Amino acid sequence: MYQYLLLHKPYGVLPQFTDGSPEPRPTLAGYIDVPDIYPVGRLDLDSEGLLFLTDDNWVKHRMLDPEFNHPRTYHVQVEGAITDEALEQLRRGVAVADYISRPLKAKRVNPVYPPRVPPIRFRANIPTSWVQLTMTEGKNRQVRRMTAAVGFPTLRLLRVGIGDLALDGLAAGRYRSLNASEIVQLREGFKRKR
């Protein structure tokens, strides 16, 4: 029987179970004690939020394969009061590094999260704002590169959704198993996309 878990990955935790660096950093092993389960996708060391883990390779493949256009939703705290023009640029796609990002959904939001430890950098004379981005691609540090490209550097990044799965109420460092109806919905959703 396959296992499906959702973890609220805290800031500063590697999205893997081991760290071979000379000064080991916190890993998923400090939060999950379920054997033979692996994260699907990544959240950088300095990103937080929803991480999906499974031992079901069929689901893993479909979540990672760009052909399935599997959406991921992020709440991003940026430096400055984000403008309508910047949001429109993000919606159309932004040139970052050697590619142009796919169009995505972008809107202002006002979420409330506990303060991050360590706190984000604070500048008394520069406001911050939050934007919600829903995208179907996941290149390395893409969200950070995109917000910087439109003039609003990322200060804090939380993934709050993967497809229909949501972070809702899951505290940092905690995980839960998907219930039977969530598993059926997840697998059936991929069958319909074929």
Describe what this molecule looks like in 3D.
With 194 residues, this protein is an alpha+beta fold. The chain folds into two domains: 100 residues, 2-Layer Sandwich (Alpha-Beta Plaits); 92 residues, Alpha-Beta Plaits, CATH 3.30.70. The strands form two sheets. Strands 1, 2, 3, 4, 7, 8, 9, 10 and 11 form a nine-stranded mixed sheet that branches. Strands 5-6 form a two-stranded antiparallel ribbon. β2 and β3 form a beta hairpin.
Quickly list its features.
single chain, Alpha-Beta Plaits, alpha+beta, 2 domains, two-stranded antiparallel sheet
Please specify the SSE layout and strand pairing:
Elements: E1 4-9, E2 38-40, E3 48-54, H1 57-64, E4 72-79, H2 84-92, E5 95-96, E6 99-100, E7 105-109, E8 128-135, H3 142-149, E9 154-162, E10 165-166, E11 175-177, H4 180-192
Parallel strand pairs: 3-9
Antiparallel strand pairs: 1-3, 1-11, 2-3, 4-8, 4-9, 5-6, 7-8, 9-10
Low-confidence stretches: none
CATH class category label of the largest domain: Alpha Beta
Helical fraction equals: 10-25%
First and last CA, distance: 24 Å
**What is the CATH superfamily label of the largest domain?**
Pseudouridine synthase I, catalytic domain, N-terminal subdomain
Strand and helix order: EEEHEHEEEEHEEEH
Q: What Rg do the Cα atoms give? A: 17 Å
Q: What is the average of the pLDDT values?
A: 91
Number of helices: 4
Main β sheet profile = 9 strands, mixed
Envelope shape = globular
The class by helix and strand makeup works out as alpha+beta
CATH architectural grouping of the largest domain = 2-Layer Sandwich
Number of domains: 2
